[in-house]
Structure formats: structure tokens, C-alpha cells
Amino acid sequence: MAVKLIGAKLRKMSKMIKNNLDIMPENAVLYFDNDWCAQCYSETNVVKEFAQIVGDAVHFYEINVNEKPKLATKFAVWSAPSIVLIKNGHKVDQFNKFLDLNQFKTLFDYYFSALKSKEVKEHAR
């Protein structure tokens, strides 16, 4: 499967795949990777770990650019790994490089601090 929902509801993901992301998720992290990228392998671990910390505050989607090139083009993803941040249904930022866990926490706090659960706020201390 080219698009995987990490730590959130599968129902919403099926709707997104069917509509080719014409209906933007309200708040989400879109993680674009591919099968042969060494940095993607490392970034996947960071994204999955952070998705576990965040829980359902924001949905995380893993999108394989080789299998879903139209989605990559739609979000101007030209390299992997890339992370696209969606807030209030709009793309607010994009990072086309490896981010470590601390960088990811900083970005998440900047864009989604109001959405964070109590557990995330405590983990950030």
C-alpha cells in the first residue's frame, strides 16, 4: 500500500486515497518516502516514534512517492524524505530533508501546540 496512516483512524485515510487528497485533512503530517532511500529509513523511525507520542492530536500519513507520484506532485515533493504540514486544511510548511526527533518536536510545537494532548505537553518537558 502506498499511503499508510500512522497511529490514527483508517476510515479517514480511505476517504483521502479515494479522493486523491482533494479533501485536505484538517490537521495532518504527510510524510513522503520511498523504498530505496537510506535517509527515508531513518526518518520513518523518527516519524513513527513521534506519531506514538502525539497520538490522535494530528494524523500522520506515510506516502510512498514511487507508488503515488501524483500526490507527490500535488504537494511539490521532489525529493525524499519530505514532510508536509497541514493545519486547518491548508499546507503551512514543507521540509525536504531529514529531521531528527528534536527538530520534529520543535516544528510540531510551533504549528500544532494548541492541538497537543496533555501527554505530549508532558513529554516535551
Give the integer mean of the pLDDT values.
Answer: 78
The largest beta-sheet arranges its strands as: 1-3-2-4-5
Q: Which structural class should the secondary elements be placed in?
A: alpha+beta
Tally of extended strands?
5
Distance between the first and last residues' Cα = 36 Å
Strand content is: 15-25%
Q: What integer value in Å does the Rg equal?
A: 13 Å
How would you characterize this protein structure?
41% of the residues lie in helices and 22% in strands. The chain is of the alpha+beta class and 125 residues long. It is globular. GO terms for molecular function: protein-disulfide reductase activity.
Task: Give me the secondary-structure topology.
Elements: E1 3-6, H1 10-18, E2 28-33, H2 38-54, E3 59-64, H3 69-74, E4 82-87, E5 90-95, H4 101-112, H5 118-124
Parallel strand pairs: 2-3
Antiparallel strand pairs: 1-3, 2-4, 4-5
Explain briefly what this protein structure is.
The protein has about 120 residues and is an alpha+beta fold. The chain has 5 helices and 5 strands, in the order βαβαβαββαα. Mean pLDDT is about 80; it is low at about 10-20.
List its salient traits:
5 helices, alpha+beta, 5 strands, 125 residues, 22% strand
